Structure prediction request, 308 residues.
Amino acid sequence: MGAETHRYTGRFAPSPTGPLHAGSLVAALASWLDARAHAGQWLVRIEDVDRPRCVAGADRLILQQLQACGLHPDAPPLWQSQRSAHYQQALDHLIAQGLAYPCHCSRRDIENAMLRNGQTAVRHGELIYPGSCRPAVTVASALATAAEPLAWRLRTDLAGKGATAWQDRRLGPQQQDVATAVGDFVLKRADGCFSYQLAVVVDDAAQTISDVVRGEDLADNTARQVLLQRALGLPTPRYLHTPLLLGANGEKLSKQNGAQALDTSHPLAALNHAATVLGLPAQAGSVAQALEVWVGFWKMSPLYNPSP
Ligand code: GLU
Prediction:
């Protein structure tokens, strides 16, 4: 091989709000297989940025579950709770460009403003921020040190004009007008926690992630992340959103709807279940053998498409 033109780095980025469940193993396995099939690196990032939702010890449990399933990261895991300075730096950059502004609205304030505007749209249970605190003129705001705890939002009207387009390796061309579909989303909350959107973008760039492989339930966040990458001058990785494991009721499995912790006392059984969701045949034998066979299948799978 000559000089490396495209070094593949993938990642699995669980939130330690509980142990892994059968659905999260699908994303972990898919990102691991894609990295191995590309002879790339695979990293694990603990997304413990939303501190109130994190459960003590869940990070350790997740790392043990991955290990039991033979999914070993190529570098020590990264904890987002240790990276606040990097997120603040990114936020400061957006503030300096007039792309972020402070917001003191409570949920009730937002609901009232929406009612006044005759707006009823709610997206996945989230309110579409009506822009009440958005400054009328673009100013590099000096309010970062205000005494009152404030949230910070992205000016989606300035960060992106019209629809943000991106390509998914499985779902094909995607687009979303973030300003109208989502509104000015939160970068940092009033309680001081940085948002998932900001942290994920800063860290995917810091870890030189070339390919994000994650569950399809997260696809809807991608346009927001692409918008932020552009505003921060960061590269956009390739994206592959995998099929989801659905519960008996047809809904995706999640900790919120009571998905059971992944039982790793029979790791091959857990992996076989995840592999089936990815269209890979169940294997017998050892975990290491099964993973090796699946790397071969992955290269023939429609989910695999090597870099152009
Ligand atoms: N931490 C997110 C979650 O567990 C995943 C983030 C990502 O893969 O971009 O849902």
